């Protein structure tokens, strides 16, 4: 006879619990793969739908193959983009671009749209001179609270001259979670910035996952081997 103080024996999970656990595990495995394939398939289809209508009907791949080959528009777009970039690097291409931009600058509405899109494109795709240097730890928004940041460059010009500090200032971009493309540009004394061994990609994963994905899963306090 059991008393109220006796420990209740551990029960094995039922069939429904085991099926539920297996289902959730399957979702975790399948969802990233399926979403990745769906996203790539959708982007390829979107590019095809934008590029193929421009090509004359007699040059359409389905006229020769008999079926609609997905991805042909992507190949044509890549070849066209490389060709335009190659021409733009030459003297003739630069001259044509200057003439076209001078014409666009005279159009009141178009010039604002064009300048905004051009600035965004240069910011996103010009990675050679505008990439972050290192991931770092800084105390933000107050001392005792630590945040992940990305060192952009050392402060220069008026910012460095007018700041009330005797040493070097570092520009640090502090991203938000889960969208690391938004955040704050802060300037910290170099001695207050702790550089990390993890890569920029690993630090970005840490921010996006809200601290759930560490560079080294075995021991988050140690740098990855």
Descriptive key words:
5-stranded antiparallel sheet, alpha+beta, 7 helices, 225 residues, flat, single chain, 14% strand
Topology:
Blueprint: H1 15-51, H2 62-65, H3 72-88, H4 91-104, H5 108-125, E1 134-139, E2 146-154, H6 157-162, E3 169-175, E4 183-189, E5 194-195, H7 200-208
Antiparallel strand pairs: 1-2, 1-5, 2-3, 3-4
Helix pairs in contact: 1-3
Q: Could you explain the architecture of this structure?
A:
By secondary structure, the chain is of the alpha+beta class. It has a domain at 134-208. It is 47% helix and 14% strand. It is built from seven helices and five strands; from the N terminus they run αααααββαβββα. The chain has helices at residues 15-51, 62-65, 72-88, 91-104, 108-125, 157-162, 200-208; strands spanning 134-139, 146-154, 169-175, 183-189, 194-195. It has a five-stranded antiparallel beta sheet with strand order 4-3-2-1-5, with helices on one face. Strand 1 and strand 2 (146-154) form a beta hairpin. Helix 1 packs across helix 3. The chain is flat. It starts with 14 loop residues before the first helix and ends in a 17-residue tail after the last helix.
Unreliable segments (pLDDT under 50, ≥5 consecutive)? none
Helix fraction?
Answer: 40-55%
Structural class of the secondary structure composition? alpha+beta
**Strand adjacency order, main sheet:** 4-3-2-1-5
Mean pLDDT: 81
Quote the beta fraction: 5-15%
Please give the number of β-strands: 5
Order of helices and strands: HHHHHEEHEEEH
Shape: flat
Number of helices: 7
Tell me the Rg in angstroms: 27 Å
Q: How far from one another are the termini?
A: 57 Å
Main beta sheet = 5 strands, antiparallel
């Amino acid at each position: 006879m059991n008393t109220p103080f006796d420990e209740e024996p551990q029960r094995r999970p039922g069939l429904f619990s085991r099926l539920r656990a297996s289902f959730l595990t399957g979702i975790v495995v399948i969802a990233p793969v399926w979403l990745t394939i769906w996203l790539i398939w959708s982007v390829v289809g979107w590019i095809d739908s934008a590029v193929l209508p421009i090509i004359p009907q007699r040059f359409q791949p389905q006229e020769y193959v008999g079926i609609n080959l997905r991805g042909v528009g992507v190949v044509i777009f890549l070849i066209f983009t490389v060709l335009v970039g190659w021409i733009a690097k030459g003297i003739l291409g630069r001259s044509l671009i200057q003439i076209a931009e001078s014409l666009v600058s005279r159009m009141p509405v178009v010039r604002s749209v064009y300048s905004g899109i051009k600035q965004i494109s240069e910011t996103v795709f010009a990675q050679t001179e505008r990439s972050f240097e290192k991931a770092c730890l800084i105390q933000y928004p107050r001392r005792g609270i630590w945040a992940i940041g990305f060192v952009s460059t050392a402060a220069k010009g008026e910012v460095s001259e007018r700041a009330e500090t005797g040493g070097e200032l570092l520009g640090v971009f502090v991203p938000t979670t889960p969208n690391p493309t938004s955040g704050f540009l802060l300037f910290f004394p170099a001695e207050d910035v702790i550089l990390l061994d993890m890569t920029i990609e690993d630090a970005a994963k840490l921010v996006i996952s809200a601290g759930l994905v560490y560079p080294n899963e075995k021991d988050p306090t140690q740098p990855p081997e």
